[in-house]
Amino acid sequence: MTEPEDLEQRLARLSSATNQLRPSAGFSARVMLAIDHAPAPSFLETTWFSARRLLPVAAIAAAMAVVWAVQVDGTVDDELATSYASMELE
Amino acid sequence: MGNQADAEDVVQEAYVKAFRALTSGEFDRRSSTNTWLYRIVVNGAIDAKRSRQRRAEASDEQIDPGWDGAAFAEARLALSELDDWLQALPPEQRAALVLQSMEGLNNTEIAQVMGVSEGAVEQRLVRARAALRQKREQS
Q: The whole model's pTM is what?
């Protein structure tokens, strides 16, 4: 009497047996036909997905703009402080 | 899917989705093309399996295996045996087990394909094997 196969043996046997399966005749042609008949992506879809890729660049640009604005603000404050001080001296 | 005709429908649908995703720029290449294609096919198969089960429960229909019975008889018998054997498993556990044992993917790849953590994949595989062992002991 043969040993009943365990779970892993059965999975391995079925895996090797089903490896021989191939698509039926004409499958590739059906797929190509389905792709040909698939509606093309709309302009909005294409724009949205393309724009999504630019999001990290836009985020970095925004962060740099904030840093630049803070620096400029600090410089303006320093300049104003200097001019007020010189006015008081006069 | 346990049925070549349904499996071909799922793969065909996956090709169409992949084509649209490539032409619209939806595929952002954050995962490898292989993983991405597997994900489309697995999600399609899980959805198709669920809707097929709902249809079968609603109408009590016998599912036609859709085979011509000529070529690849042994392989198709094996596919039928696999389908019967894994029938009782929830679709996510079944998909994880098939990806590992039939497709040879490792847990990291399965996690990427199924969009879950490796821990969740491990849990699904353990549960699937436990359910199959329990089924065998009961029979």
A: 0.65
